[in-house]
Amino acid sequence: MNLLVIGSGGREHAICQKLLHSRGVTNVFCAPGNDGMAQSGINCIAIPETDAKALIQFAQKEDISYTIVGPEIPLLEGIVDEFENAGLLAFGPSKKAALIEGSKDYAKQFMKKYQIPTAKSETFTDYNKAKAYLDEKGVPIVIKADGLAAGKGVAVAMTMPEATLALKEMMLQKRFGEASEKVVIEEFLEGEEFSLMAFVNGDEVYPMAIAKDHKRAYDGDKGPNTGGMGAYSPVSSISSAIEKEAIETILIPTAKGMKIEGRPFRGVLYAGLIATESGPKVIEFNARFGDPETQVVLPRLESDFAALILALLHNEKPDVRFQKEGLNLGVVLAAKGYPDAYEKGHILTGLEQISPEIGIYHAGTKRDEASNFISNGGRVLLLETSGATMKEARLHLYEEMKKLDNPDFFYRIDIGLKAE
Ligand code: AMP
Ligand code: GLY
């Protein structure tokens, strides 16, 4: 099989890598990919992730067996529908089904209707009404832009001035453009967060190993929210009873509900969850693989990845098996300043010294004219390793991260620390 992956981040690097190691796979193409992927035998194609027409032409010309769509933007634009209309197989939700990620307001309404546990909330398009609700509810409180904001459209406000500022920025100053014309204001939930992804085909749900993301930019969960600064899988502090409850009360009813709504979901459903005192509750849904969760979850997949996706696309039962022993840990190297303004074009020193057994997933990197790897994004790359214990994995991985130390970049030193 020749396969195509759409996207250019660490998540897509991990997806491509796993496909390359699957049986019966000849070529893996990634559009647009990045120069780091090209180094590991992935064929990068210079087509933007949202250029559906050019991607379809490419898939037809190269006899692509199927395409996997990584990022949310092409999914929300309906790229899977376009591939299907052209008679091509593509793994990912339709435009209609991807709305569960594209609109937080839609996701909340859907969860209310199907009694899927989540924080209580109200949606507003009028600033004064939103402000009045805020004053009535008080803090702590959570304010979310309705639309996509690259993981940054959420303010968890502990004080009233913070809450008011966030609301003003979103609704009056349109900080996230159209995405924040509508806001969801929701109850603050307390508990441990975890990510539960599943392969979904209509009402069939095949859960993956659970993972833990680290969303805040700095150590000790301080600083602004980012796309994710590191992750590990599985999560020993979340019991299998909670995991089971989350599958039964959240994932399965969501898949069933989407089918009833005429938005049947085929792809990866990602539930961002909080284990509260009254059980797991949803903080967000994504309609795709998580980043950086994928970089620590996919290495744990024991069954054949390419065959698993093909089975789902053919409406057959896939073989989904994850390793039970040990854990995988990943730490992101980010550009100084991320998630706010940051510079690109800094040379990545030490990359050639990374030990061969470490997974290197490139995200924002490219090669300069002298063939050096330079930074080309906020999240630059992720290093990943497995270990029998968290202590062992952390020791090993942070020895490697040190090789990348450089004042132009930063990384959190406490990924997985609480799980030691
Ligand atoms: P999201 O982009 O919706 O995943 O939100 C980003 C982060 O904000 C989450 O990872 C949580 O840490 C936090 N968060 C979101 N919603 C809530 C909530 N209702 N209660 C407490 N924290 C939340
Ligand atoms: N790591 C969170 C996300 O992929 O949205």
Automatic annotation (TrEMBL):
<keyword id="KW-0547">Nucleotide-binding</keyword>
<dbReference type="InterPro" id="IPR020562">
    <property type="entry name" value="PRibGlycinamide_synth_N"/>
</dbReference>
<keyword id="KW-0436">Ligase</keyword>
<dbReference type="GO" id="GO:0046872">
    <property type="term" value="F:metal ion binding"/>
</dbReference>
<protein>
    <recommendedName>
        <fullName>Phosphoribosylamine--glycine ligase</fullName>
        <ecNumber>6.3.4.13</ecNumber>
    </recommendedName>
</protein>
<keyword id="KW-0460">Magnesium</keyword>
<dbReference type="Pfam" id="PF01071">
    <property type="entry name" value="GARS_A"/>
</dbReference>
<dbReference type="InterPro" id="IPR037123">
    <property type="entry name" value="PRibGlycinamide_synth_C_sf"/>
</dbReference>
<dbReference type="Pfam" id="PF02844">
    <property type="entry name" value="GARS_N"/>
</dbReference>
<comment type="similarity">
    <text>Belongs to the GARS family.</text>
</comment>
<dbReference type="InterPro" id="IPR020559">
    <property type="entry name" value="PRibGlycinamide_synth_CS"/>
</dbReference>
<feature type="domain" description="ATP-grasp">
    <location>
        <begin position="108"/>
        <end position="314"/>
    </location>
</feature>
<keyword id="KW-0658">Purine biosynthesis</keyword>
<dbReference type="GO" id="GO:0006189">
    <property type="term" value="P:'de novo' IMP biosynthetic process"/>
</dbReference>
<dbReference type="Pfam" id="PF02843">
    <property type="entry name" value="GARS_C"/>
</dbReference>
<dbReference type="InterPro" id="IPR020560">
    <property type="entry name" value="PRibGlycinamide_synth_C-dom"/>
</dbReference>
<dbReference type="GO" id="GO:0005524">
    <property type="term" value="F:ATP binding"/>
</dbReference>
<dbReference type="GO" id="GO:0009113">
    <property type="term" value="P:purine nucleobase biosynthetic process"/>
</dbReference>
<dbReference type="InterPro" id="IPR013815">
    <property type="entry name" value="ATP_grasp_subdomain_1"/>
</dbReference>
<dbReference type="InterPro" id="IPR020561">
    <property type="entry name" value="PRibGlycinamid_synth_ATP-grasp"/>
</dbReference>
<dbReference type="InterPro" id="IPR011761">
    <property type="entry name" value="ATP-grasp"/>
</dbReference>
<dbReference type="InterPro" id="IPR000115">
    <property type="entry name" value="PRibGlycinamide_synth"/>
</dbReference>
<dbReference type="GO" id="GO:0004637">
    <property type="term" value="F:phosphoribosylamine-glycine ligase activity"/>
</dbReference>
<comment type="pathway">
    <text>Purine metabolism; IMP biosynthesis via de novo pathway; N(1)-(5-phospho-D-ribosyl)glycinamide from 5-phospho-alpha-D-ribose 1-diphosphate: step 2/2.</text>
</comment>
<dbReference type="InterPro" id="IPR016185">
    <property type="entry name" value="PreATP-grasp_dom_sf"/>
</dbReference>
<keyword id="KW-0067">ATP-binding</keyword>
<dbReference type="InterPro" id="IPR011054">
    <property type="entry name" value="Rudment_hybrid_motif"/>
</dbReference>
